[in-house]
Amino acid sequence: MINKRLLVKNLLAHNDENSFYDKKRFINIGQKEGKAKFLKHVCALANSNPLNNSFIVIGVEDEDNEIVGVDFFDDSKIQNLVNAYLDHPPLISYENIPFPHLSEGKVVGLVSIKSSGKVCALRKNIWKYYGGAVFFREGSISLPKAFDIELKDINSQTVATIEQHARNNIELTLDGVIDFINNRHKDLTSDYKVFKEQFVVCWAGNEKKVKKETYYSRVDIELINEQVKLFYSTLDEVTISFDEDSFTTIEYVQLGLGSELRYFPLEKVVITFSDNGKYQILSNLIFDPPQYDKKTLHHIFNANNALLQKLEKNISLKASEREDLKHLPATYLICYLNGFEEAKDQMDMARPILKAHNANVYQSLKESLRILRKVQYN
User: Fold this and answer.
1) What's this model's pTM, rounded to 2 decimal places?
2) 165-181 tens-digit pLDDT
3) Can you count the helices (H) and strands (E) in the chain?
């Protein structure tokens, strides 16, 4: 079993960017340019490594390898994005790796890529790349190549050695459990469960009971053996259940207009553990978004746009407008879910504005964009 934090350290310590490994300060797959560049690198790494894993490490400074982290990226549907744009798409996973020195909510992103064994190519045009384009790695650069180029295995032994040095052990697992419960989450209700005598899942959150059902907020869930953060949210409510073979979460999001707020189930995730040392994560979007009168939403949409314009021009907001600003991310999300597709562009535009003016609303915006991303990819 590979400890993913050790794997990231080994990649950073022993290798410059090369044909099986890339690093990024951040990625932005919410925009066409960022999405296209990400797909290009995935395609190039898959073609350059037909028989072994390749990796993208996200949240690292390019010049000195300083680990600065990125926001937790909860996107179990990233395989859908790759499948939609690439022929012979590789298997891909995005994992959130906690590092002790990073602030709360910050992680290192680890993208693992496993080639299908066939030449991977862009299926359709995106940004400035044309459908049919094939990319390979030359050193640290992803470059287009002729389509009929032969796939060659040159990295299997190197990658196998790096992964072997990242194997987990009992000491790392015990240290991880103690650190999670006693240090990082000593102010929250926390617990752990061992599955199949191998896997340890820890979780923590503010616990509350409603009609015999237990809900958690400020939730953090980690698979300690692999040092992978499975779930993190400061806002949404989560239920947790488990048996001897599986661990299940259901995430709820609070939505509504004005004071009419209620919780809607968003996604169910089931982690099933096997006796052979493997596990499988299955996610199912169970979201049925609330529907509202279009005239009401049109008024709210325009009011949100006006608030952003005032902030952009550094115009002071009235007390009522400051209250409306708190709900801006959620109401933009409701507008999008009710057919206002331009609301997504407004949310993207709002990121730097809200980051500069209101940290709490900015955090709410990131959560709303996370929900939107899940709905889009599904």
Assistant:
1) 0.86
2) 999 989 999 999 999 99
3) 9, 17
